[in-house]
Amino acid sequence: MTDSTLTPEKVTLRRKILGVRIRHARNRAGLGLKAVGQALGLPAETVNEIEFGRLPVSLPQLEVMGLIFDVPVTYFWSEEPLKEANLEFPTREAIALRQRIIGGLLRKARIEAGRSQEELAHILGVSTGRIADYEFGRAAIPLQELEVLAEQLKRSLNYFIDKGIPVPRRSEPNGHAAPPPVPDEIAEMSQLPEEVREFLSNPANLLYVNIAMKLSELSADTLRSLAEGLLEVTY
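Now predict its structure.
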């Protein structure tokens, strides 16, 4: 059985490894600290601290970095090729929404595993209130902590990852344009109201569509928890 104890040494090493891969991907994408900070809603100095492993990074933030660096999010903990960058998506909104969705998934996994917030707090060495903040999306979960919680709740990290963030297809490597939609897809699109077709045709809106699809897959209890968290944030 692997040792999942979250020691300060493990946290520091994990942050440094993530920081190196983030900096590598950013440099390959030709983006500056300021540009990445604007996408994440963070100061450039904070991005620099993340790259040097002095500050934690959350899974939603890594997902957005993967998006703008045009790399799969798994690149940050495995060997993956790097491509060109893409800055066309509403990244800050995506982080906020994904943070709430991940919190809801965490709460769902904890309840299904029969674990209490107090138990998770003890495992991470944080307060019970901190776990509540994670579950209601009020605070970002550092990736190292999410990995430990996933293992404790018998879930893989993939359980929390958004695999469906769609990126508009660019030209193929041979210079030819990407193939057009098949007739069935065109027929289905033609049945939608004009304003819906316009919304779906805008690449910048694809992330919202994907998030809506993800929300539709959640249970009523998880959606209720997300709603409660949104109300708490609002009021």
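The two ends are 44 Å apart (CA to CA).
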